[in-house]
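Final report, Chapter 2: Outcomes

The project's central promise was a pipeline that accepts a single protein chain and returns its three-dimensional structure in a standardized token representation, suitable for archiving and comparison. That pipeline is now operational. To close this chapter, we reproduce one record exactly as it appears in the project archive, with the input sequence first and the structure output second.
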Amino acid sequence: MAPRARRVVPALLALALVAGVAACTGEGAEGGPPGDGARAEVVVAEVEYRTGRAGRLQVPAGPDAVVVLVPGGSWRSADPAGMHVLADALGSAGLATLTVTYGTDGTGDHHPVPVQDLTCATAFAAARVPDVPVVLLGHSAGAHLAALAALAPDQGAACAAPAHDADAVVGFAGPYDVERVGPVAGALFDAPRSQEPELWADGNPLTWVSERPEVPFLLVHGEDDAVVPQALTDDFGAALHEAGHEVTVVTYPGVDHLQVIDPNVVADDVVRWVTGAVVDR
């Protein structure tokens, strides 16, 4: 399915995909952990990137970047299983991936805990797959949190790995302005905006668009999305661009809120953008 790109910055030249790699599970070819020594073509392992937070790490041989995949769930849940197919596709194209969860209202956690989790996931990914860019990729509420973690990573997180800020962000159908989302965002803050206006402002990516202007963004939305209005992506992209970020906004005709993370729809475009806007930058 061909996307329609509304260019906030000049379109990137399309780059050929890295040749596909067959995924496999287990340890490296010589028994080493993921990211160390000789490896099978794609090494897959369950890891703990922060105390109590588990993720799924996939490392192909010689990855060009590592992508941290962040699921949605309206800040009430964060089941990473729906991101595994996309992670597999990115791994087959030569990108390492770390698919994560984070604290939510369902686990009794609220802002800034989810952002702290992603800050630690970013640091962990950089430590396990060193010397390549780290890209935060989120869907829906996960896109909101990925943007926030990249723009305002200093949220008091205590991480085992050395600090490492995200180098780029890919957002799918994100509710980037929590004030326009309304009561649904209450799950993130555990309080209405009328009671905690400063907390809501701190957890709103629009508050932070002027921070870290070196971070490029790819923002993706499906035209048939009936869950998150496309205007939230368009307006966030415009605000980022005005603040000095390189931004590419892509829309897909006939694609809804869940289909937007289908690798058959988006994987090629994500790989091209990561290669062109991040790796070769």
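Archive annotation: The chain is about 30% helix and 20% strand.
This record, like all others produced under the grant, will remain available to the consortium after the project formally closes.
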